[in-house]
Amino acid sequence: MSVLVDNTANLIAYRPARLTAMVVVADPRVRQSVTRHLWALGVRDVLEAQTAAEARSRMSATRDLAVVDIHLPDGSGLQLLAEMRAAGWAGGLAVSAADDAGAVRAALASGVRGFVITGARPVAAGLPELPGVHA
Fold this sequence. Notes:
By secondary structure, this protein is of the alpha/beta class. Helices cover 35% and strands 24% of the residues. The chain has helices spanning 9-13, 28-40, 52-57, 77-86, 101-109, 122-125; strands at 2-5, 20-24, 45-49, 65-69, 71-72, 75-76, 91-96, 114-117. The radius of gyration is 14 Å and the shape is globular. The chain starts with a strand and ends in a 10-residue tail after the last helix. Mean pLDDT is 79; it is low at 120-135.
């Protein structure tokens, strides 16, 4: 798993008493892995969704972080992240199994705070390996 963030200061600048998140990923193994990693980081209130429609139905509870697969079975994860940002969600993180530079650029240009590639080798992208992080 590779992680790209726009500025590491953004990762620690905002720490409310209880972080909240929603993970929107169709693949149950990846979704559960992301949720477990969020729990390990101290996020205790995590909603999960498999589709954009399911996420939209649960968006009324604004959260601190949205972790969304850019390729959802029923639509664009980038569009969903834009809707969440417009609804007041503080942060967005895009997830993809594909190592596509164009998708990374599009996601970062759309305003997400980071991009996680779940199926690529970090060494190929020149990014450091994160200990204990596996897709």
